[in-house]
Amino acid sequence: MPTEEANYYTAVTVAAILLGIIIIYFIITMIRHQRRNMHLYKAKINAEISTLENERKRIVADLHDELGPLLSAVKLRINQLDSEREDDKKIVEFANKHLGDIIIKIKEISYNLLPNTLARNGLIHAAEEYIDKINAVHPLKIRFNYDDDPGLSKEKEVNIYRIFQEIIHNTVKHARADKLEIEMKKQDNQLLLTMIDDGVGFNYEERSKNGSGLGLLNLQSRAEVLNARLLIESAKDKGTKYFFEIPI
């Protein structure tokens, strides 16, 4: 091969190698950039959810430890009033009734924010209790099948309980379903949670593309925090299926 031709091929080879190195460097930089953004995004979601849960705990503690006992003490003092006048008796009766209603409402708000059962007895008991409450007051019939306690951390139990609440709330409010089947089982190192309703369904792709639906965003955020895989299948008049694959 002539010297000039050999030099030409050498130059082309060197240029190709340099170009390849530049392309590989560019791809690696893009991957690192995406990973860093994903890491920052997850950290942001974690911080937001952690702040939200801590704020809920603080409000529950304030309601339980301060406002509840204060109202109970006021109610006790009012009941101790001794008057023969009918007008006074009616006022005491009125105040007593409304104080009782307020105390009950405070207990309901505390329960919705963070039920004691979740902290004391764990996810399965808390989920059963919540489902029993919904079944008692709503036509939607929820059936919950589960294996033994999967032995999750408290943090994971809180996030999965919020998933229960969100999906049941969405089903009651939007799905117009007659029944909701829930199955939770452990498989190897995964917790598989499936929730299927027989409601009117919705266009999941369109909702996701438009970024609409606070409930769906909440589910996606909880899945991110749990490092879980989330699949949602739904179609008009064919119900909705939610599937979570959660590492234990």
TrEMBL record:
> Can you give the residue ranges of the Histidine kinase domain?
62-248
Which key words are in the record? Kinase, Membrane, Transferase, Transmembrane, Transmembrane helix, Two-component regulatory system
Asked whether the UniProt record includes Transferase among its keywords, one would answer yes
Query: Which GO terms fall under biological process for this protein?
Result: phosphorelay signal transduction system
* Record-listed E.C. numbers: 2.7.13.3
Pfam families (alphabetical) = HATPase_c
Transmembrane regions listed in the UniProt entry: 6-28
Q: Name one GO molecular function term.
A: protein histidine kinase activity
EC class, as a word, reads transferase
Cited SMART domains: HATPase_c
Enumerate the PROSITE patterns for this protein: HIS_KIN
Catalytic activity, per the record?
ATP + protein L-histidine = ADP + protein N-phospho-L-histidine
Q: What is this protein called?
A: histidine kinase
Q: Which organism is it from?
A: Panacibacter microcysteis
